[in-house]
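Exam revision sheet. Question 4 asks you to relate a sequence to its structure. Input first:
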Amino acid sequence: MRTSDVDILIIPGYDNSGPEHWQSRWERQLSTARRIEQESWDGSSKDDWVARIVRDVERADRKVVLVAHSLGTVAVAHAAPLLPQGKVLGAFLVGAPDIDRNDFTLNIDPAFRPVPRDPLPFPSVLVVSRTDPFTSYETAEDLGYAWGSAVVDAGDAGHMNTESGHGPWPEGLMRFAGFLKNLA
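Answer key, structure tokens:
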């Protein structure tokens, strides 16, 4: 499967993804990609985030592949049981945070907690860093297995955002292309 065969819905995390973030770059590069816009990017309403994901999946013209980062991955897990059956072909998830830990520093809607641990109803990949400040590798790996995701070890990659040097992130785009190919 090629990117042109599906609608690619990009779901940023807390505070959105800036213009140099890999998600923003992919949105500009991939002709069928578009961002799911949130009314508030500070995670102040889990229900609003989930409703927008569901709405945009329902409105998509073709089958959908989700591309989520950080808090966006948690929002996908909350939205998954509400999505139209068979409409989402897969999810490419990056940098799932451990928002359930006691010392989690971002002030987000408590309704995001606990992170759902039910298997996702579509194939997924979870890319996990060994040096993500928002989760331990072991916690993220465990979450990925609970979701039924193929877990990809990204090594010492930080939070896989602009600050950690993941603006262009060509390795991620290649991994995403491989994920799409396997969905065919």
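Marking note for examiners. DSSP finds five helices and six strands in the chain.
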